[in-house]
Amino acid sequence: MHHSTAWRAVGQSPWKFLTSSWPWRSFLYLLTGGLFGALVLTVLAALTLAGVVSLVVGVGAVLLLGVSLSGIVVSRVERRRLLLMDPDPLPDPHRPPDGPGARGWLATRLREPATWRELGFTAASLAAMWWMDVLVLGVSLGVPVLLATSPVDDPGAWPLAVLAVCLVPVAPYTITVWAGARAAMTRAILAPRDGELGRRLTEVRASRARLVGSFDAERRRIERDLHDGAQQRLVSLNVLLGMARLDAEPGSSVARQLDSAQEQVGLAVDELRELSRGVHPKALTDHGLPEAVGNLTARSVLPVTVDIRLPHRPPAAVETAAYFVVAESLANATKHSAATRAEVHARLHADVLTLSISDNGVGGADPAAGTGLVGLADRVAAADGRLRISSPAGGPTLLHAEIPCR
Q1: Mind telling me which residue stretches traverse the membrane in this protein (predicted)?
Q2: Average of per-residue pLDDT across 3-32
């Protein structure tokens, strides 16, 4: 919904407009604007006067600095009030402080153009907007009341009463039109500029990439701990059980129990190896994407043709994203597509890794169906790449990923 919705509402049929919520929302918007404007004017005037008077003792500088930063608080309230007229919230244009504590916050805010733009908005609001809110409410509601309360014993008063009755239905239109204009001006001034939005988007992308990188590093640590810790202990235990089995009487109850224990330990080792590969395959860390995908497809029940030719190893984050795209795609093909074969193709062109996984299954892969495709798209997007899926009913299914290697 856009801020011009209020003006479009005015253009509706009178009955539909007057029975809607727009007149009341506009009234509350202007009423709170007038009250808040009067409060801000009083507080800032007092702080400015006190700051100028006490400037010689040093305290005044702090008060005047507070006045300079008052636009941040005023604009925050105005963004909240704007929701009465426009449900689409305005994003905060301020970035996180560059340093810790109040000093870091202050240094960042004083360097931001948004801080001074908000101060300018506060000045404009105090100079014109808030008393225009009061004036519109006074004219729209006060004039009809004054006309209607004219002395009843005055023979010339009845035309004024008729005029008052005629002005009452006009008041909602006047109030809503000005409220829509007021909201439009507020949004135009307080909306973040392209540079500020671009910076925030860059910060979000960088933060997401750091989170994914930290997550992948933790997966590699867990895989190392499983491989070098629990898995090695189980292998050692299996060897000890085998040596104990040699000392046991053949065919005895102890020998059978040792055989059973050794079999269970072997199964546990196999399961732990599968678990460690799912967490983060050691082959990916040690040998790279082609080796890891080769090991993955060798264990797949679905025949897979692998064609990966890379002149050099991509960055670790790119390799990890590509590996899990292949792993999840093949798992989906095995579980859901009834495919009889699949293909994995990867090339490194300039600084972009292109990856394609296709199968000859029944198609119909839908990211909304909870098959893990949304998670794959998020992982690729975190690496600043993109994932495209083609899966018409009847097949085939093709996943194509492009991941920058910057």
Answers
A1: 27-47, 53-75, 119-146, 158-181
A2: 81
